[in-house]
Amino acid sequence: MKKALLLSVVASTMIMAGGDIAPVEPVVEAPVVETSGWDFGGKGVVYYQTNDTIGISGAATGDLFSQEASAADAGIQLTATNKDLFAGVGAGVTVNGLATLGLENDIVSNVMQSVYGNLTGGWIAESYLTYGAGNTMVKVGRQTLPKSLSPMAYSENWNVFENTFDAALIVNSSLPNTTLVGAWVWQQNGNGMHQDMATFGKLNGDRGVFMLTAQNKSISDVTLTGSYYFASEFAAGNDLSILWGDAAYNAGGFNLGVQAATLMSDAFATDPVIWGVKVGTTLAGINLGAAYSDVQDTWAHQVGGSTSAVYTTTALDQVKPAANTWTNETKFTLSASAAALGGNITGVFANSENDYSDYNEFDLVYSTNLTDSINLTAAYVYADLDALSDTINLVRVVGSYKF
User: In the 3-class helix/strand/coil scheme, how is 169-198 assigned residue by residue?
Assistant: First the structure.
């Protein structure tokens, strides 16, 4: 998610002018045509996924591509934004709709996302106001939050549509090379397999969760990010504080990252700790990477969805059930990606040891832009969990059209 989602709502204006000059007539100028200042857009999505193993993402037992083991959705998203309704006040609205196109009759037996538990319907995904003054921007209402600036509560884009939050946000860039973000987050609709996207639940009653993030880029090629979360009476009536830090270096075909976090509350016998490291380089046009993470006395899981900001997050994290059983996890990943076949191919190998089950995983993803507006992504996931009697095979195909 780009930083522009936190700083402003982008809009465009258009002025058309013209005229004709007759030899014996005065100049006649066409009047200026003023637009409303609204920018409209959207996208259509067709999403299909099948996996052959019970116990993952709620799938029934069935062969790969069978109706019993498959889920699908067709979705449409409409957006409208205006950065200056009046006196510097802007607004934005996003409406999402889902349907099955009748695929549940013969092709699939489930959906990736639902609306109030129904197969077909729509919801307001975003509805916010913005106001800018100098180097400060305020955004209030239902909105997306980016992982780079809110690592414990962010919008995920692996499913049909992103999850969103009811929040108040303030962003300031007065300090050199520094972005300061403050937020109060109240509700979210979550994201996961078969998630009801139209129902928004409170994160911490009416008290909400407070967040403060500082991101600095004063050092060349280095990005330093620190976040602090506070939720009063969150854990068994006790306050909860979360500290998260990330340092990343990226230059000359080489990148390095270190991250660490801790959760602090009187409700915990031991404060949970998360840390990770990653390294990457580019050789002969191939991007190579390796990462390691250690999550103790908790699980790596953001509140708005099924994944985390930990470097070792893989496709299995998107669909695995009962996140709180995958505690005390050590995990490493090896990855490679390159431009090929008119698109990009990425392969990831992962090994995990955790309280639920040790496992090996392999992800293979191909993505291509068929046109400036049409994207096609296909993924294959293989996993071998000690806790299951069979391996996991998962296939995902997603087509999207932006307009």
Answer: EEEECCCCCEEEEEEEEEEECCCCCCEECC
Structure tokens that stand for 31 in this block: 């009047």
**Diameter of the chain by CA atoms?**
92
Cα(175)–Cα(139) distance, integer angstroms: 20
Handedness of CA 333, 339, 340, 341 (dihedral sign): positive
> Which DSSP category does 118 fall into?
B
- What DSSP designation does 325 have? G
The model's pTM: 0.88
CATH 2.40.160.10 is the classification of domain 46-402: yes
| Residues 141, 230, 179, 249, Cα dihedral to 10° | -120
Q: In whole angstroms, what is the distance from residue 231 CA to residue 39 CA?
A: 37
The pLDDT assigned to 301 comes to 81
Give me the residue spans of the domains in the chain: 46-402
Residue 78 one-letter amino acid:
L
Place of tokens 């019993």: 68
- Helix (H) or strand (E) run with residue 127 in it: strand 121-133
CA distance 295 to 117: 33
CA distance 281 to 289: 7
Residues in a beta bridge with 123? 96
State the CB neighbour count (10 A cutoff) for residue 21: 9
Please name the residue that has the structure tokens 């994290």.
317
pLDDT digits (tens, 9 = 90+) for 148-197: 999 999 999 999 999 999 999 999 999 999 999 999 999 999 898 889 99
The Cα–Cα gap between 347 and 357 comes to: 22
DSSP state of 323: G
CB atoms near residue 86 (< 10 Å)? 8
